[in-house]
Design a protein that fits this description.
58% of the residues lie in helices and 0% in strands.
């Protein structure tokens, strides 16, 4: 077999051996990743010119309609995918997940507080990071 030749069956075969939880975890991961990318696109488009340093606007779109830090929520969803894919039996994955939730929860609380203080018309129905909870 030459260096450029690829045995597709050898590449795909391990995927066929994945269990139900790994596929569900992968789908959850992908869902979180897609939303995180969308939220970063929205946040990145708020200031198209670098000279607009002091111009702030209330971000809208996607999960920004329900939480102040949707990119953090999406990151948590990504880690939920890891927990599910691991079968929930790996202590290290759980500790990593708890650290991510705590770390992003604190950051989201501060961001939410900043938005509420910066904008008088900031939507009061938005949560900091987890809809209907926090």
């Amino acid at each position: 077999m030459s260096a450029m030749e690829i045995d597709w069956w050898e590449s795909v075969n391990p995927l066929l051996k994945l269990g139900r939880l790994q596929w569900i975890g992968s789908a959850i991961f992908l869902w979180g990743w897609i939303h995180q990318r969308r939220c970063h696109e929205i946040l990145g488009s708020l200031r198209p010119h670098a000279k607009q340093v002091d111009d702030y606007v209330i971000p809208t779109g996607d999960w920004l309609e329900i939480v102040s830090s949707p990119h953090y929520l999406a990151e948590i969803v990504i880690y939920v995918g890891f927990v599910v894919a691991s079968g929930g039996a790996d202590l290290t994955v759980w500790l990593l997940f708890l650290f991510v939730v705590a770390n992003l929860g604190f950051a989201a609380a501060e961001t939410h507080k900043w938005y509420l203080g910066k904008f008088e018309n900031y939507p009061r129905n938005r949560f900091a990071i987890i809809p209907l909870i926090f």
